[in-house]
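Q: Could you predict the 3D structure of exo-alpha-sialidase?
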Amino acid sequence: MIPFRKALIGWMMLILIAAHIPYGSAGVSKAAEAQAAADGEPQFHNIDLFVAGTEGYHTFRIPTILTTKDGTLLAFAEGRKNSASDTGDIDLVLKRSLDGGTIWEPLQTVCDMGADTCGNPTAVQDESNGRIWLFMNHNYGDDTIEEINNGTSRGVRTIWSSYSDDDGATWSEPVNRFEEVQPSNIRWDATGPAIGIQLRHGPNQGRLVIPAIGRNIQSDDHGLTWYQSGYIQADTNEATVVELTDGTLMRNDRLSANKELKRRAISTSSDQGATWSQVFYTPELIDPVVQASIVRYMPADNELGSKLLLFANPAHENVRENMTVRLSHDDGATWPEAKTVYSGHSAYSSLTVLPDGMIGLLFEGGGYTPYDKIMFAKFNLAWFGAEEAHLDDLMFSEGSLSPVFRGDIGYYRLTLYEGTEEVTVTPVTSNNGIEIEIEGEPAASGEPRTIQVDGLEDLLITARLGTQTRTYSIELERSRPRPELLLHWDFEQVDDDGVADVAGRGHTGLLKNGAAVRPGATHPHGQGHILHLDALQRSHVDITQAQDLHFGTDDFSFAAWVNPETLSRQRHLLMWYGTAGREVPQWWMSVEQNGAVRMNMNGLPLNREIGIATPSGLVKTGEWTHVAGVRQGGNLLIYVNGELAATSARFDGSAMNVTNDAAPPFVGFDKGAAANRDWNGSLDDLRIYHHALDPSDVRKLYQLPSDTAAPITKAIVTPDEPGGLNGWYTSDVTVELTVTDEESGVAGTEYRLDGGEWKAYEGAVHVSAEGITTLEYRSRDGAGNVEEVRNLTLAIDKSEPKLTITPNRDVIWPPNRKWVPVEIGIDAMDESSGISSVVLISVTGNGVPDPSSMVRGAEIGTGDTSFELMAANNPGGQKRVYSITYEARDHAGHTTIKTVTIEVARMINREDEHDGD
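A: Sure. Here are the predicted structure tokens for exo-alpha-sialidase:
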């Protein structure tokens, strides 16, 4: 199917571009480019276009991309000045590319309304005159969506527009369209975001259409005036719209109610937007409730009737990750093909089709959050059907990898400490067909490899699949100073003065209000002493000699083992540096009531607050959990049990000075006015570094240094015993994998069936295929120990064998009382367990009480197929019928019994009437 489709699309592009649809006239070279793009070698490229914390903006959000009729790419985004918030000082910014997305012009500002919000870009081009319309939304920067909706804001959210007549080089002043396109009682409104369309069918051909909440905004006079379409069913927003090949309009919206459906909301209009169908939901379009993008591959009136649509969103029901593009060949009725563009955190997106047939996707994503940056991916249709030679992950025992690993990026920097001599590398891929090499030597997925890096400038890792090769070049930087440990309480050294600082920096911990060090508690480091704090007594620990704990704008890290007795309040403070209140220098870490870990920071001179929290449930009462909070340049990071669990969007580190000399730091104490959020439970191995710990550092704090033993995985099979013989199951089988690792804990389990791709184990494996299935599985612990691959053979036979009996004769003649030899042909087959035996179980004749008088040489209970039958009728001339029965049995114990008959023909004369036994 794939090669045919690619060839078909190639010829379609060749014909359509030569026929001036929709990008204007094109010569042979353009047609050749389109043919190559659609039907050539798979192509995929991905670059970072807008990066948080650069070009004067805290965060970039809400991507929109438009390909103009002259082939210029216009990439719009919101430039959020001071935070990642949806409100505040937000500008609309633009980057242009004149060469299909390889080179991009510098960032330009399209809309800047001072401290107010100008966002939600939605663009469309009028092909009749080339004018590009850009719709946007405005609200006061200090008005939140809640305040606007409940009527307590200064203003409402309004729709504006601007236009460009020179392919986006310059733009008109934005115009307020509120009175034209918004009912007077609407307080919150929004266009798109992404792109609009221009109709190619029907009486309103040429109409400009901009999707908005609950309806479209339309113009039939090339933008001179604008008005609203008919309204669709409520409870949707962030709309997209396409025109189908028969002129039907199809909306694809995000849910604002019924969110538990986790699907896209679809509605259609057969009268060009005057009325709309009831909303329905497409099963394939799973969605974590987020904006998405849809676009035609060819115009709705293309001469070949192509119905190819493309759809992009984070293909996940629960979290914003796994940016995926899907293909529909039938105007959105089905979506049979999908390919992941970016497997990490991702959110909003915008699709476009380039003049040469390539596809562009502008989307939000990142290694830490979905909003770290906006990337531009460019690929062709051939890429959808191609396997790719790339790794899923690269893990290093030392250092910090930058950027966060992504399979399509080839160049990285691994920052190591001074004097590092060796690094253990673990490549990971789910495609078992990929051959891996590390520094020219074969390597295996999931298998650690130690490399001597002394004197090595770059580390080369190669992934090879067939003729495809991808090389990852890791620059080694070994100049980073080692972590400076400022405070370390292991609670094993306690005297009358308090808890000793084993880092030797004099940070004695003064036990207050019943805080106590208790012996004999079992925790991940074995038997030892721990700190116990009682929130009802406001127990806490003062840190003495805190002069070197004022970090200013420098990096720092906090780490501890925690075990809460209760999580009964909004939050329970682990550490608080600085004074309480807003707009004062401070940082603190807590465990929230829902089991999330939180880290907050306020800094001067902007008095800006940065706060992040992990998903809920990571910390549980009565269980030990390792947590670490890290400030690293312009990011906050939280690790739980050695793994990165949350990060902030990038911020301006120079504007986040947290020094507060007059406020002593406390462990386990809430400095807020309510004073009801103290720690309640135990702590152990508490550390503070004047340094941003690397991921490998945090992992080592979580792991036991002595852990050299791999985890042990056991397979529990249901049914617990085979239902058949010889170890064969006679029903479907479910396999549950359980893992034990008493030291560093289990980091992950994976499995594969019959040598296929390795998959992460997420629940019981169901095996229903008949025959022999080999299940392989292994686990990895927190120390990086990988278990030897274990095997489980599952033999399943749910079917009876097939048996065919064919005698060499159906009739015996004449009935002359002579012995007649009979040969029986046997054809027995069982595709699962195979035939165990075929035996003769009986030879009988009607009306014959003594079988020995009618059959000779038949060995009952064996596989005998040769014997003799008496050629005789029964007394009284009755026809004799011999019944010969065989039983086939397979190795699983299933049986099939078949009977064949042989008749003795009757003699119809007087003498024979008295013939008999």
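Q: Anything worth pointing out?
A: Helices lie at 2-18, 28-39, 145-150, 178-181, 695-702, 910-913.
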